[in-house]
Design goal:
The complex is a heterodimer of chains A (841) and B (263). With 841 residues, chain A is of the alpha/beta class. The radius of gyration of chain A is 27 Å and the shape is globular. Chain B is an alpha/beta fold and 263 residues long. In chain B, strand 7, helix 4 and strand 8 form a beta-alpha-beta unit. In chain B, helix 1 crosses helix 3 and helix 7 runs parallel beside helix 9. The chains are: A alpha/beta (841), B alpha/beta (263). At the A-B interface, helix 31 and helix 32 of A face strand 1 and helix 2 of B.
Amino acid sequence: MSAIYSQKIEKSERIPKLIEHLFEKMPQIESERAVLLTQSYKETEGQPITLRRAKAFAHILEGLPITIRPLELVVGSNTKMPRSCQVFPEYSYSWLEDEFDTIETRSADPFYISDETKKTLKDVYTYWKGKTTSELATSYMAPEALTAIEHNMFTPGNYFYNGIGHVTVDYAKVLKIGFKGIEAEAKAALEKLSVADADYARRHHFLEAVIISCQAVCNYAKRYAALAKKMASDATEPRKSELLKIAENCQRVPQNGATSFYEACQSFWFVQMLLQTESSGHSISPGRFDQYMYPYYIADLESGKITREFAQELIDCIWVKLNDLNKVRDAASAEGFAGYSLFQNLIVGGQDSNGRDATNDISYMCMNATMHVSLPQPSFSVRVWNGTPHEFMIRAAEVTRTGVGLPAYYNDEVIIPSLQSRGLTLEDARDYNIIGCVEPQKAAKTDGWHDAAFFNMCRPLEMVFSGGVDNGVQIGPQTGDVTKMQSFEEFYDAYKTQMNYFIELMVNADNAIDVAHAELCPLPFQSCMVEDCIGRGKSLQEGGAIYNFTGPQGFGIANMTDSLYAIKTLVYEQKVFTIAELKEALQNNFGKDMDAKKAEQITTQVAKEFVKSGKVLSSDDVKVIYETVVKNNCSGDKKDAYGKILDKIGELPKFGNDVAEVDSFARDVAYTYTRPLLNYKNPRGGQYQAGLYPVSANVPLGAQTGATPDGRLAFTPVADGVSPAAGRDVKGPTAAANSVSRLDHYIASNGTLFNMKFHPSALAGAGGLESFVALVRGYFDQKGSHMQFNVVSRETLRDAQANPEKYKSLVVRVAGYSALFTTLSRSLQDDIINRTQQGEF
Amino acid sequence: MADSKLLTRGRIFDIQRFSTHDGPGIRTIVFLKGCALRCRWCCNPESQSYNIEQMKQNEKIKTIGKDVTVAEVLEEVLRDAPYYRRSGGGITLSGGESLLQPDFAISLLKACHDHGINTAIETTGFAEQSVIERFIPHIDLFLMDIKHINSAKHAEFTGQPNERILENAALIARQAKRLIVRVPVIPGFNDTETEISDIAAFAKSLNGVNEIHLLPYHRMGRDKYEGLNRPYLMGDVPPPTSEHMEKLINVARSHGLTAKIGG
């Protein structure tokens, strides 16, 4: 075996030009897919749904405008304009219609939409009324579950309104046998069917749908071949030759198996892009790109057909293309997933299915690509195990140091046994990759439903205080008068009762959505690349995969740990204040004023209610409402009393400071979510498994949560992932990591997320990289599962100066050593800000 | 039987985890209280007096200094053992001056060695020879300041002459596992090429010494003087420019030493 080539490779001049073109204009919403889909649906009324889906997919691929962007080497775009998106009315549409006039100016992820597109979509939408997955799912949900969603106990929003996505298909198979090969498999399966089989009709429809989809994809690629050829005839060299090569590639792949690395890149891209044309699901994750691309690369390299530089250029081109795809979400979800992110997770390194280290040249070239392109996609990840080469770690640390927030680090030593405990074979577990944010699974065999819901663990605690009443409605179990609870055990039991109840409702909601997708939106194209859909003759959505899961995320562990710990020690052990006093303090937000932004929102709501009831409001009236909302108008005495309670809570040790007692308590609190979930099954025959992370939903969902007994004020963000609550870990990175490692990362097999903030200066020099790697290693030795680093910018430092309470754990390097930024004097902080320029390390 | 050294008491004023610049790897720095020198540029003025004192910091009064047992410190130090193992890190005693609390410091160092933890000390080297000899077996790395070769100037800026320091440097170089010489580069005190050259020449003459660190003066400690109600004698002297530091580092290298800026 030849030695691994780990050196950096220069960036081609093409790459910055591609990126410049990508970001020239604001992304826009395009309507062609919706129009074509609707045309096809109208023509196939009454036919089996799987076939209707395949025919619609084929019709879309016949009619969707195609475009080759300037200087591209790897081609295929489902929109005319870069970074734009098609829409998917089969899942839901009314939110978009409602936002037509605001979507261009909203703060999170705005899109341009032309008047013409608005009109076209309005026409199309008339067809979809009553036909979407979200409407069907709603009709399948228990009324209590709908109420719980309305009251923000949890949100199943992602799959409720969109496609599922969250899958890694068998890229290797497409590269090897092409869609011609997959079509042949489907045909062979058809041959084997007996007309007397009990499920003959369903299998037959599905396999026929696969064949239609495969052919549609091949024909689509040939449209690109023709376009490239036509463009070549008008082009001058060297572009002419490039276009002719593109034409040749698209003529061959993805129909046939790839015969070169370049063809493999093109074939990969068609799969990646078309998965996101068939459905609107995000987190379609390329997975172990370094593994399935390597054979094509090394064969070409050894036979002299390709240079490393050109292979790197192609990989860089794919990185740029991954940023060309986009998705429009409703305003609330856009805040939860801010940054136009599609979470296309691509992972390198780790073990192969035989347990040997799998690092190769492409692993390093992917690191180069991430540094060359410096864009959010792909969500770049690395797998780490005891046998990971040190050089690999150092190179990854260098990528981290650039400040892109990538890669994320994953621990094989936790994830492999964790997946085995969920029924994966050892070989499959070793071959895991990550979906979306942090969710591990085995590619090409899994339908993981990894992002099934967000469950806000703070809300059930509020229900304990209110006896299950929210805004005057009994939405949870009546756990009794909280002020009469005599022991912490009694209180904690009430919390668990509330948790269990709402977990059950969340399962009900998820299963309803699951069934709706199976009935209305099976995806034959996606399914033909996941085992054993062809063998079983059913789509992924109907349970065609080998491994089936549903993974809803719990978040707010740190807040609940600190809250319950405060109640346990201050109310029941030390009896510093009573539970009734605490309840009153919480209701009054500890006597503090409200966050101005939230107050504005509430004022708007109240004003709307007044207007609805027929009142006419002057601007002065609105002002008065705002003043009442924002100002905490309890008396001075009360304020003092609440303030004292808040101070006492503040003095307690908090999660994230390496205090064993608090940390083991956190482990137990996490179990209140992770354990009950294991009791539930989904309609695809799979198990529920918990994740512990909120993406960025901790901010918007925190805005729906009142004050909590950990001293968190009303409507402020809830803690991020399994990370300590913002600003409460004050003992530096190793202490925080030790605390987080005391959680049970094995049971949260849908993933945990630990975010740490660093300033690039803390990673300066070779020594900085070594220390950083040791930090990751040390955390992983203690069985943490995931770690990612926010290497912060100068702007963040300014924010930290203004809001030190949010940044107590931020590490910066000061003259010759590292320190917590907020502990430094103002003048020194200024000094650091002033001498910190991007890239100066 | 209880390990009696764990009960030894000493006075510290801070423990800082995840330090990566005072010795190899990821380290926990234990700051001992009390020092025999009074360097004008000292960035930890609260370390100088052995007495427990009050300092105002960010509008709050903080008590500086507390008496602890070796066992208490060890517990804190052991927390980061996973990171020491991965990085070759360990404990670094700083101060203040650890040599002034030999029973406590040596017990702590021994206890760390019992747990296989690498030990380092940041020191002025200002102590009796016999004290230093007691420390040597328990220290894997000495980071020792040589601030000036001229004793009179040394005394003027630090309050103590340098003869004993230079003798101890030679002793440590002969007997200890490893010694790295450190020079705080202070404008107006030792920042000329000649002065740095003299220090480097001395360092090079020491048995087995091959590394020198130049630590540029910074104003990190200025606010603390105010908090302690003490005058800041350095005034508005600006830190050395990076161009100047480059020049000095080349001077140090010209003596055949491995030299770097910062720890």
